[in-house]
UniProtKB/TrEMBL annotation, chain A:
UniProt name for this protein: Cytochrome bo(3) ubiquinol oxidase subunit 3
UniProt gene name: cyoC
Listed transmembrane segments: 34-54, 74-93, 105-123, 143-167, 188-209
Family under the similarity heading: Belongs to the cytochrome c oxidase subunit 3 family.
Annotated SUPFAM superfamilies: Cytochrome c oxidase subunit III-like
Lineage: Bacteria, Pseudomonadati, Pseudomonadota, Alphaproteobacteria, Hyphomicrobiales
Function field: Cytochrome bo(3) ubiquinol terminal oxidase is the component of the aerobic respiratory chain of E.coli that predominates when cells are grown at high aeration. Has proton pump activity across the membrane in addition to electron transfer, pumping 2 protons/electron.
Location of the protein in the cell: Cell membrane
Gene3D superfamilies assigned to the protein according to its UniProt record, in alphabetical order: Cytochrome c oxidase, subunit III, four-helix bundle
Subunit structure: Heterooctamer of two A chains, two B chains, two C chains and two D chains.
TrEMBL record, chain B:
NCBIfam families the UniProt entry points to: CyoD
Annotated function: Cytochrome bo(3) ubiquinol terminal oxidase is the component of the aerobic respiratory chain of E.coli that predominates when cells are grown at high aeration. Has proton pump activity across the membrane in addition to electron transfer, pumping 2 protons/electron.
Protein name: Cytochrome bo(3) ubiquinol oxidase subunit 4
Region: Disordered, residue numbers: 1-21
PANTHER family, A to Z: CYTOCHROME BO(3) UBIQUINOL OXIDASE SUBUNIT 4
Mode of membrane association: Multi-pass membrane protein
Keyword annotations from UniProtKB, A to Z: Cell membrane, Electron transport, Membrane, Oxidoreductase, Transmembrane, Transmembrane helix, Transport
Keyword Cytoplasm appears in the UniProt entry: no
Record-annotated membrane-spanning stretches: 31-51, 57-78, 90-112
Complexes and interactors: Heterooctamer of two A chains, two B chains, two C chains and two D chains.
Length: 210, 130
């Protein structure tokens, strides 16, 4: 099952040993560096949340959250992303045990749930634009599309990353470098779920009751 | 755990370590999953069923639940603790949290007071000219 390609694996393992002193997950300095990236990404989202918070009542005579937001649809999207985070967590023990097949299977399930999330979000966006509530309608809608769209773009990048991992797993197996990549991807994916907590609370739920 | 997955010497030590913190983190992960589902369902239920008549109370509760859920996710899914990376991940996280609170809280606070104090008419709040 684990068809390792040693020619591809060896230089990576040499790299890995130099960077792996006293480190978990076998990622060396990469995991800390990726963590710093996630924190800086959190600052991007913080500025977008701040912008949304400031202009969230700037309707310019246009429709507000109560008329626009469809909470059952948001609940569906939230469930899709949360379950995809959980299914990614199912892949990690298989990865640690070196089982390529189950790792790929759980990653594929995660990718399908993520794709469904992006699909629902695109449906919501197209619906809003068709109603005349596009980003150019008011400051509130500009901020909404920027914040939620930036999150959706991140999820889309995550989907491309998952697809790349699926292909590379079948080519390289679970080499040290592949494990490092998948650990970084799992951090990225869980991070996007955390940002979504802020989105569904601050934008959707609070928007509807405000 | 499986030995065939260990390509080199460091892999063996990695596996031993994986076992050592594997059980604790699996259990923590399951608790995290249960908590995060609950912390997602409750705010949606509160808002969609309009269980509480006071919208301000509902808002305070859903924001508190969101903060708790963020901490749960960071601890059980991102495995943030005081030891990983010699404490550097925790330090980076706390620094980021301070900046996030200042950015969001500060912006909303300042701009709210700017609106309240600068808007010429009382009904401006209904259609502010942002």
């Amino acid at each position: 099952m684990t068809d390792r390609t040693w020619d591809a694996g060896e230089p990576e393992i040499a790299w890995h040993e130099t960077g792996a002193e006293g480190h978990e997950h076998g990622g060396g300095a990469t995991v800390l560096g990726f963590w710093i990236y996630l924190m800086s990404d959190a600052l991007i989202f913080a500025s977008l949340f701040a912008m949304y918070g400031v202009v969230s009542t700037g309707y310019a005579g246009g429709p507000g959250p109560r008329q626009l937001f469809d909470l059952p649809l948001v609940a569906l999207n939230t469930a899709l992303l949360l379950v995809s985070s959980i299914t990614f967590g199912q892949a990690i023990p298989h990865m640690e045990a070196g089982r390529v097949g189950p790792t790929q299977a759980w990653l594929a399930v995660t990718g399908l749930l993520g794709a469904a999330f992006v699909g629902v979000e695109l449906y919501e966006f197209s619906h809003l634009i068709a109603e005349g509530a596009g980003p150019q309608r008011s400051a509130f809608l500009s901020a909404f599309f920027t914040l939620v769209g930036t999150h959706g773009a991140h999820v889309t990048v995550g989907l491309i990353w998952i697809a790349t991992m699926l292909v590379q797993l079948s080519q390289h197996g679970l080499s040290g470098e592949m494990r490092r990549r998948i650990i970084c991807l799992s951090m990225f994916w869980h991070f996007l779920d955390i940002i979504w907590i802020g989105v569904f609370t601050f934008v959707y739920l609070h928007g509807v009751i405000r | 755990m499986s030995l065939h997955s260990t390509p080199s010497v460091h892999g063996a030590s990695g596996d031993a370590r994986g076992d050592a913190h594997g059980h604790g983190s699996r259990r923590g992960y399951r608790i995290g999953v249960a908590l995060s589902i609950g912390l997602t369902v409750v705010p949606f239920w509160l808002v969609m069923s309009q269980a509480l008549s006071d919208a301000r109370v509902t808002a305070a509760i859903i924001f508190a639940l969101a903060l708790i859920q963020i901490v749960v996710h960071v601890v059980s899914f991102l495995h943030l603790d005081t030891r990983s990376e010699g404490g550097w991940t925790l330090l980076a996280f706390l620094f980021t949290a301070v900046i996030v609170v200042l950015t969001i809280g500060g912006s909303i606070w300042v701009m709210y007071h700017l609106n309240v104090n600068m808007m010429p008419t009382p009904d401006a709040a209904a259609a502010p000219m942002h």
